[in-house]
Recover the amino acids of this structure.
C-alpha cells in the first residue's frame, strides 16, 4: 500500500479522498491555489503545497506544479478526484513517466473513452446496445443527409471529443440538418480543439441510468448496480438516486452485464461508470466516465462499499476481495447537490457563510468542505455540499431527505436547498415518474 498520496483537487471530493486515505493509514498531501489557503482540504491533509493563483488553469490544472508538489513531498501516487485533470490522459501518462501512480484507469482507457466515436465502435464490437447512428466521423454534408435519412429524424449531432452534453445539436427536420452540422462542428472546434462530430438517433424521453463499475489490475470487473441521474438542468445533475425507481432486477442484471462487457472490452481497471439511456425496456450506451463521480455516495450507501478506498487499493495493485455474487442492493439512497446559487435562477452566489448547521441523525450523510465563516471563492464550481440519505424504501428516503433539508442551516449566501425542498414534494417526482426533460418542464 502507498505511504503517502497527493490529492490533485479541492472541495468535498478532496476531503472524501483524505478521509479514505486516513482510514487506510496513508498520509496525505493537499495542493491548493492562493484562493484556497483557508480551504478545509488544506486543514485536513497532513501537508499542503500552494500550486498557483486562483484561476484553475494556473493551479488545479497546472500539471508541472502538481508533479513538482508530488516530487518534493515524496508522494507515491496522485488521486485526481473528478473534474480538473481526472480524465486528462496526457496527465495520467506524465504521472507514469514521473514514477507516480495515477489513481484511476490507464491513460489508454481514458483516451479511448474520451473519443466518443471510438467508444461507440468499441461497444458495438463488445455487443453492448447503442442507438442507430454513424460509424465514423461525419465527412460531408451528403454523408450527414444520407445517415439522417437512414436512421430517421429526429437525430442528434454530438462532438467526438465532447461528453457530458456539451456541444450537442438536436435536429428535427432535414431542413435544419446542415446548419446544425456547421454549428456543431464549429462549437466542437472552439470547445475541444477538434471539429469531429457524429450522428445518432435522438431518443426523446429517456431516463439517464448509469452503472458503477469496480475493477482491479487482474481482470476482475464487477458492477455495483445503477444510479438514476435524470434530474438535471443544463446537463448539471441536481438529484441522483439508487436504485433507479423503475428498473427491475432482471433489467439491472442485463444492464450490469452490458457495462461489465464494455469494461472487459478495453481491459478496464479502477473505478468507472457506464452511462445508458433507458427508453422503456430498452437501454443504449451513451458514454463511459473514467473517474470517480460526484454521485458515487448513493452507490456506497446501498452497497456498503467504500468506492474511494477500493480505488486506492486497486491502484496500489491489491487484488479485489469483493465478488459479484456478494453484491446486494440494500434500501434506497438519494443525493441532493447543494449549490451556492440562487434557488430560482441558478446563478452562482459565492460569498461568506454566516451561520452553519449540518443535519444528522439516522441515515444522513453530508459530504462537504464548507464550515461556518468559510468564504466561497468565485473561481470554481458552485457545489458546496452533497446531502445524502439512506432508508429502507424510496418513500422513507424522500421523507428523510425533507427532514434533513429542514435541519440544514446555511446563512449568508443563497443555496439550492429551497429548490430541493419543493422538488421533493412534486407528485411526479414522488411517483418516480420522470425523464431527462423533467426539470425543463417543471421549471417552465
Ligand atoms: C442523447 C440523448 C438522446 N438521444 N443521445 C446528454 C449527456 C450525454 N451523456 C448524452 N446525453 C444525451 N444523449 C441520444 N441519441 C439525450 C441525452 C441527454 C440529454 C439531452 C438533452 C437534454 C438533457 C439531457 C439529459 C440527459 C441526457
Amino acid at each position: 500500500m502507498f505511504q503517502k498520496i497527493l490529492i490533485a483537487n479541492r472541495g468535498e471530493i478532496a476531503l472524501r479522498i483524505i478521509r479514505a486515505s486516513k482510514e487506510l493509514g496513508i498520509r496525505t498531501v493537499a495542493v491548493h491555489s492562493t484562493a484556497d489557503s483557508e480551504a478545509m482540504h488544506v486543514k485536513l491533509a497532513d501537508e499542503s503545497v500552494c500550486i498557483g493563483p486562483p484561476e484553475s488553469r494556473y493551479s488545479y490544472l497546472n500539471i508541472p506544479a502538481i508533479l513538482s508538489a508530488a516530487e518534493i513531498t515524496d508522494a507515491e501516487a496522485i488521486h485526481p478526484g473528478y473534474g480538473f485533470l481526472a480524465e486528462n490522459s496526457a496527465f495520467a501518462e506524465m504521472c507514469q513517466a514521473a514514477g507516480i501512480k495515477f489513481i484511476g484507469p490507464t491513460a489508454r482507457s481514458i483516451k479511448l473513452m474520451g473519443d466518443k466515436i471510438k467508444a461507440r465502435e468499441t461497444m458495438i464490437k463488445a455487443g453492448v446496445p447503442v442507438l442507430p447512428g454513424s460509424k465514423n466521423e461525419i465527412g460531408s454534408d451528403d454523408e450527414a443527409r444520407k445517415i439522417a435519412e437512414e436512421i430517421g429524424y429526429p437525430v442528434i449531432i454530438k462532438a467526438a471529443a465532447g461528453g457530458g452534453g456539451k456541444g450537442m445539436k438536436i435536429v428535427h427536420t432535414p431542413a435544419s440538418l446542415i446548419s446544425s452540422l456547421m454549428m456543431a462542428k464549429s462549437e466542437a472546434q472552439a470547445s475541444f480543439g477538434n471539429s469531429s462530430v457524429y450522428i445518432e438517433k435522438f431518443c426523446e424521453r429517456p431516463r439517464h441510468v448509469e452503472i458503477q463499475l469496480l475493477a482491479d489490475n487482474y481482470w476482475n470487473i464487477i458492477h455495483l448496480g445503477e444510479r438514476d441521474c435524470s434530474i438535471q438542468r443544463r446537463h448539471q445533475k441536481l438529484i441522483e438516486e439508487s436504485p433507479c425507481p423503475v428498473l427491475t432486477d432482471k433489467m439491472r442484471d442485463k444492464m450490469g452485464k452490458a457495462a461489465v462487457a464494455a469494461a472487459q472490452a478495453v481491459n478496464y481497471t479502477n473505478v468507472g461508470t457506464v452511462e445508458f439511456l433507458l427508453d422503456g425496456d430498452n437501454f443504449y450506451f451513451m458514454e463511459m466516465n473514467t473517474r470517480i463521480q460526484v454521485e458515487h455516495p448513493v452507490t456506497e450507501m446501498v452497497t456498503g462499499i467504500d468506492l474511494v478506498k477500493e480505488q486506492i487499493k486497486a491502484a496500489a495493485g491489491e487484488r479485489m476481495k469483493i465478488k459479484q455474487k456478494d453484491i446486494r442492493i440494500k434500501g434506497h439512497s438519494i443525493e441532493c447537490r447543494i449549490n451556492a446559487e440562487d434557488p430560482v435562477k441558478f446563478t452562482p452566489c459565492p460569498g461568506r457563510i454566516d451561520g452553519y448547521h449540518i443535519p444528522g441523525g439516522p441515515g444522513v450523510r453530508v459530504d462537504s468542505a464548507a464550515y461556518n465563516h468559510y468564504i466561497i471563492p468565485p473561481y470554481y464550481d458552485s457545489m458546496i455540499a452533497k446531502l445524502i440519505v439512506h432508508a429502507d424504501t424510496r418513500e422513507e428516503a424522500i421523507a428523510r431527505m425533507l427532514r434533513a433539508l429542514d435541519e440544514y442551516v446555511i446563512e449568508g449566501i443563497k443555496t439550492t436547498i429551497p429548490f430541493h425542498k419543493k422538488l421533493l414534494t412534486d407528485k411526479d417526482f414522488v411517483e418516480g415518474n420522470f425523464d431527462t426533460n423533467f426539470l425543463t418542464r417543471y421549471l417552465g
Notes: The CA atoms of residues 86 and 100 lie 15 Å apart. DSSP finds 15 helices and 20 strands in the chain.
